[in-house]
Every structure is written in C-alpha cells, then in structure tokens.
C-alpha cells in the first residue's frame, strides 16, 4: 500500500495555533469528515477512544492517531504539520509536531496494519521528517509524503 493511495493532497494540513491534543483531534476529524462523509463526531469518538487505550505518540515528535470507523470504504489518511509541538503523552515524553491520522473500515485488519506500518516506517526516516519540518506548504508536504519509497529512504 502506497501513501498516495490513501492520502489526498487536500488531506495535508499545515496547522498554526494548535495547543492541545483534543483541539488537534477536532481539526483532523473535521477534515476526515469532509473527505469521507462520516460524521465528525463519530471520527472524533474513534480517535479519542483509541487514545484512551494508550498514546499514539511514537516519539521523536511523531504521532499516528488511528481508529476504525463503520461506513468507510477504505483506509483514509490526514496529515498535519504543527507550527508548534504539543503535549501528546508520547512514549519519549516529547511533544509532537508531525501527525498522520489513519482511519480504516471496521474489519479492515490487514489494510489497517499495512497502513500503520507504512506510515511508521516513513515517519521514522530522518530525511523525510527533516523535509516535513522544513516546509509548511501542504502541496510540498504531500509530495514528500507520497514520493516513491526509494527516494524517501535514500542515504
């Protein structure tokens, strides 16, 4: 699964003034509702419910909040680059500024796990995170995120 298959260009956000995880989840769920037609409240409930099980903050300023939603036809992603990192209860206790939200249909176990794995691998690539933190233009951020794997992982 390539990120270009699940991340639309208009699903990449450059966010300013976000001060909390809840505010971020509201922004992400609003964009996801716009993309999918699923009510924002359902998406927000899925994200916060999953987060209550344990933080989706991976460390190094990266988080991958995710959830399963009834009525979706496929995996959908929304990316947000924050101008200022926010507290996220990450495993390394560091604030987060790069966030890829993933939503999957209920029962989409393999696709959901493939997407999580793909995103985690990509966002742990130092050259990719450097590029994402150096730019705030959504179109250029989308290009970085959806570039072929070989280009993203080159030394």
Descriptive labels:
alpha/beta, single chain, 155 residues, 43% helix
Describe this structure in words.
The chain is of the alpha/beta class and 155 residues long. The protein has one domain (3-147): Mannitol-specific EII, Chain A. Helices cover 43% and strands 22% of the residues. It is built from six helices and six strands. The chain has helices at 21-36, 40-53, 109-123, 126-134, 138-146, 149-152; strands at residues 12-15, 57-59, 62-63, 66-69, 76-86, 96-105. Strands 1, 2, 3, 4, 5 and 6 form a six-stranded mixed sheet that branches. The radius of gyration is 14 Å and the shape is globular. The protein starts with 11 loop residues before the first strand and ends with a helix. Mean pLDDT is 91; it is low at 150-155.
Low-confidence stretches: 150-155
Kindly name the structural category.
Answer: alpha/beta
CATH topology: Mannitol-specific EII, Chain A
Please give the largest β-sheet.
6 strands, mixed
Q: Note the total helix count.
A: 6
Portion of residues in beta strands equals 15-25%
Provide the domain count.
Answer: 1
Encode the helix/strand succession as letters: EHHEEEEEHHHH
Number of strands: 6
Average of the residue pLDDT scores: 91
| CATH 2nd-level architecture | 3-Layer(aba) Sandwich
- What shape does the CA trace take? globular
Q: How widely separated are the two ends?
A: 23 Å
Radius of gyration, CA atoms, in whole angstroms: 14 Å
CATH class: Alpha Beta
Tell me the name of the CATH homologous superfamily. Answer: Mannitol-specific EII, Chain A
The percent of residues in helical segments reads 40-55%
């Amino acid at each position: 699964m390539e990120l270009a298959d699940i991340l639309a260009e208009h699903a990449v956000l450059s966010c300013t003034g976000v001060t909390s995880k809840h505010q971020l989840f509201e922004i992400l769920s609003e964009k996801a509702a716009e993309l999918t037609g699923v009510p924002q409240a359902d998406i927000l409930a899925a994200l916060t419910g999953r987060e209550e099980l344990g933080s989706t903050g991976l460390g190094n300023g990266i988080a991958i909040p995710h959830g399963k939603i009834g009525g979706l036809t496929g995996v959908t992603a929304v990316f947000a680059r924050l101008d200022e990192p926010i507290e996220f209860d990450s495993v390394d206790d560091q604030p987060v500024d790069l966030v890829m939200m993933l939503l999957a249909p209920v029962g989409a176990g393999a696709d959901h796990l493939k997407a999580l794995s793909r995103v985690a691998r990509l966002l742990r690539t130092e050259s990719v995170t450097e590029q994402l933190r150096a730019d705030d233009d959504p179109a250029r951020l989308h290009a970085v995120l959806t570039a072929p794997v070989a280009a993203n992982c080159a030394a």
